[in-house]
Amino acid sequence: MLVLIAIDSAQRPAHVDRGRAVDGELVAPVVLACSTPDCEECTHAWFGLVSHGPTATAMVVDRPGVTEADLRRRIHEWLDCRGVIDVVVEATELGGYSVDGHRIDDPVEAIAELVDDHVREIRLICASYPVGTVVSRLGSLVSAAHFADAA
Questions:
Q1: Pair 66, 105: CB distance under 8 Å
Q2: What pLDDT does residue 14 have?
Q3: Interatomic CA distance for residues 128 and 140, integer angstroms
Q4: Distances in Å between the alpha carbon of 101 and those of 3, 87, 98, 115, 131?
Q5: Residue 146 three-state SS
Q6: Tens digits of per-residue pLDDT, 121-151?
Q7: Which of 5, 8, 24, 71 is spaced 20 to 30 Å from 103 by Cα?
């Protein structure tokens, strides 16, 4: 399966310095808007699905041993650890959760949709770049990372 993994970057931005993702671990972008308006981390980082730490760069790789079920489980655990699931459940119970203008009242459906969104985003990124491409992000914009050669 094509997935994204954390890679170490010597050109790591200052806002992605603490609690880093572990090189080689599966990562995902944040697809749900962060509640902190000036959050640089959620806008720029990929998040480790085991360490939960950020990294500035990720690589498209083929990991035949990773199944979609594995990826979904890891994404669900990461969202739970970040407190996102609690927020979504509360919002659905209060009637304030919608996806693309469609109100969702069932918390299980809402969480499943959120996990689906992350898997879709990872698939889209992996389909857009060849294996071995290092990518960085700015919100929903993803591009191949180009590093200046050291002098």
A1: no
A2: 47
A3: 13
A4: 29, 18, 6, 18, 35
A5: coil
A6: 999 999 999 999 999 998 888 999 876 554 4
A7: 71
What are the residues whose beta carbons fall under 8 Å from the beta carbon of 110, sequence distance 6 or more? 88, 89, 91, 92, 97, 99, 104
Which residues have CB under 8 Å from 107's CB, separation 6+?
A: 88, 89, 92, 93
- pLDDT tens per residue, range 43-53: 889 999 999 99
* Coil, helix or strand at residue 109: helix
Residues 129, 12: Cα–Cα separation, whole Å: 21
Mean pLDDT of the chain: 86
Q: Output phi, psi for 89, to 5 deg.
A: -60, -45
Asked whether 139 and 15 are in contact (CB, 8 A), the reply is no
Q: What is the pTM of this model?
A: 0.84
CB 76 within 8 A of CB 28: no
Query: Cα–Cα distance between 115 and 75 in angstroms, integer?
Result: 6
